[in-house]
Amino acid sequence: PPERKRFYQNVSISQGEGGFEINLDHRKLKTPQAKLFTVPSEALAIAVATEWDSQKDTIKFYTMHLTTLCNTALDNPTQRNKMQLIRAAVKFLETDTVCYRVEEPAALAELQKNEWDPVVAWAEKRYNVAIGSSTSILGPNIPASTKETFVSHLASYNMWALQGIEYVITQLKSLILSMGLIDRHITVEKAVLLSRLEEEYQIQRWGSVEWAHDYDLCELCARTAAGTLFVHLCSESSTVKHKLLQD
Length: 247
Hints:
Protein name: ATP synthase mitochondrial F1 complex assembly factor 2
Number of strands: 6
GO cellular component, one term: mitochondrial inner membrane
Distance between the termini: 37 Å
Organism: Eudyptes sclateri
Number of domains: 2
Subcellular location: Mitochondrion inner membrane
CATH superfamily of the largest domain: ATP12 ATPase
Oligomer: single chain
Helix content: 55-70%
Number of helices: 11
Radius of gyration: 20 Å
Shape: globular
CATH class of the largest domain: Mainly Alpha
Main location: mitochondrion
């Protein structure tokens, strides 16, 4: 949506029957589908409130990644169920960035091997699966058992967290890098760098377009960080969540 003039002075959170709500002065925040904006954890509510409070004279919606993710989780505009979200995430394995390798130039092929092989090896050990890589345009042949293992693993997350996981995957174009990030095996900066390995190689060789590459990199880091934070804040145990609501 276009920028909008800031229409509120104060931002606060309050506890309602369904979770934590965001208040803009005396108005309760609503989703694009006019549902009450309610999030499952106090920490997530504080993070969203901070996004709204940090807006200056105009509201720049495109900078409010956590708010956008919450709206998606609440409105579910594509009307997908949990298994559809999981299958969509696992499908990225077939075109995973770190599984597609080049043979030429030799320097880039070596860079991919040195940088991507360790994270693929980590994922294979962490989830007890076979992934591999390929220089074929068809990509590697991912075993069905590997896909089912990831389906089972992702099923342990709730619907909110799954929305965040899919968001991170679409930023990095990689399920493997996303799981490494969410499992705290690699940092946001490392995950983004690995997802842009070929582009960074070309920049080092030919130079960058002044400001454009830096802007793209900062935006990608911001979206990836927000998605990862969203997953972590939505992955609280139901026991903790229930206690918060009871208190």
